[in-house]
Write a structure and sequence with these properties.
Layout: H1 4-23, H2 25-34, H3 43-60, H4 73-76, H5 79-94, H6 99-116, H7 123-154
């Protein structure tokens, strides 16, 4: 078994990799608005990338980011939020044998889309790669992290 501090460290690493970029997109925005080919777009157009990513993470997420994963979903979310967040949780509960596959596939998609966005030259490419693909894959990563934390706390 692992120690509680090791579990907390691994959960914080998950948060850093998945949510860190989403919440710090303003830093990337400063770079994008001052360097070609992105400086031809307005700040509001470039903001669509981070807004899409963070929006998808909030819509499909199992728990809200500032709250600990060790709480039950009933304690953390309002009934409306629970209804919206059921998509990822329902997939994991319906197909528990696919959780590991979905997790690692999501990690590969998230990393690949960030890498491929290095070669993007149009705004729509950034929105698809960093906004949509990272948003959905990071949601699946965070949901599996939440379920894993609950499973470990029960053990």
């Amino acid at each position: 078994t692992t120690s509680p501090s090791a579990d907390a460290a691994s959960l914080n690493l998950y948060d850093l990799c998945t949510q860190g970029y989403s919440f710090c997109f303003a830093t990337t925005l400063v770079y994008l608005e001052n360097h070609p080919p992105w400086n031809r777009y307005s700040v509001s157009q470039l903001s669509a990338v981070g807004t899409t990513q963070l929006g998808l993470e909030y819509i499909f997420r199992a728990s809200s980011p500032p709250l600990t994963s060790f709480c039950s979903m009933r304690d953390v979310l309002t009934p409306g939020e629970r209804a919206r967040s059921r998509l990822a949780v329902t997939v994991y509960r319906r197909y528990p044998e696919w959780v590991r596959t979905i997790l690692w596939t999501s990690v590969v998609i998230s990393c690949s889309s960030m890498l491929l966005s290095s070669w993007a030259t149009e705004l729509w490419q950034l929105i698809v790669l960093q906004g949509v693909l990272c948003g959905i894959s990071n949601t699946l990563i965070c949901t599996s992290r939440s379920l894993l934390a609950r499973w470990r706390s029960r053990r």
